[in-house]
Amino acid sequence: MQTHRSSTSWRQQALIEASPEAVWELVGDPNRYPEWTADVAKVTGLPHVAEGATFQRVGMTPEGTRTLTFQIDEREELRSIRLRCLDTNTYTRFSLTRARGGTFIDIETGTDSPGLWDRALDATKRKRFFRDLVNRTVDGLRDELTKSGRAGTADWRESGPENTKTA
């Protein structure tokens, strides 16, 4: 596994009341992201999900839509996937672990951009942006799993805080 250095990131862990297989069906295939990620309108150019594959993601922004190119940097079936935006040098990593009858998910998103402009954004807005993005991601996963009837099969109850900040 590669080590990644980021200037700003947000990491959050959560227990999802669904099997790792059900969660993986959503996070392990970027083609499925429009189903549960509010910021993703469409994914194109990904006929086969594999390490090294690239695809385009049409995202929703306050100004309208924006098309970005992503690459799957790492992918281990039913365990983890790391995506990197080739246009912005941001990344998102999902790691799944079976836990207490459900799925423990560890999500990290951040940027690998070391430039001056990026450091200025880091100091002002980016940390909050990443935190909000990860929170929406967890909520979207839970909502889609509930809507599809794949949630609610676990025998655990959440305990303790879900957020862990990393720099």
In words, what does this structure look like?
The chain is 26% helix and 38% strand. Mean pLDDT is 84; it is low at 154-167. The two termini are 20 Å apart. It contains 3 helices and 8 strands; from the N terminus they run E-H-H-E-E-E-E-E-E-H-E. It has helices spanning 20-27, 33-36, 116-147, and strands spanning 8-16, 40-44, 54-61, 64-76, 80-85, 90-99, 102-111, 163-164. Strands 2-3-4-5-6-7-1-8 form an 8-stranded antiparallel β-sheet.
Can you give the helix content as a percent range? 25-40%
The appropriate CATH architecture of the domain at 8-29 and 76-155 is 2-Layer Sandwich
Say what the CATH topology of the domain at 8-29 and 76-155 is.
Alpha-D-Glucose-1,6-Bisphosphate, Chain A, domain 4
Largest sheet: 8 strands, antiparallel
Radius of gyration: 16 Å
Number of strands: 8
Q: Alpha-carbon distance between the termini?
A: 20 Å
Major sheet strand order: 2-3-4-5-6-7-1-8
Which sequence of SSEs, written as H and E, runs from N to C?
A: EHHEEEEEEHE
Low-confidence runs of at least 5 consecutive residues: 154-167
Structural class: alpha+beta
Strand-residue proportion: 35-45%
User: What is the CATH class name of the domain at 8-29 and 76-155?
Assistant: Alpha Beta
CATH superfamily of the domain at 8-29 and 76-155: START domain
Number of H- or I-type helical stretches: 3
Keywords:
single chain, 167 residues, alpha+beta, Alpha-D-Glucose-1,6-Bisphosphate, Chain A, domain 4, eight-stranded antiparallel β-sheet, 38% strand, globular, disordered C terminus
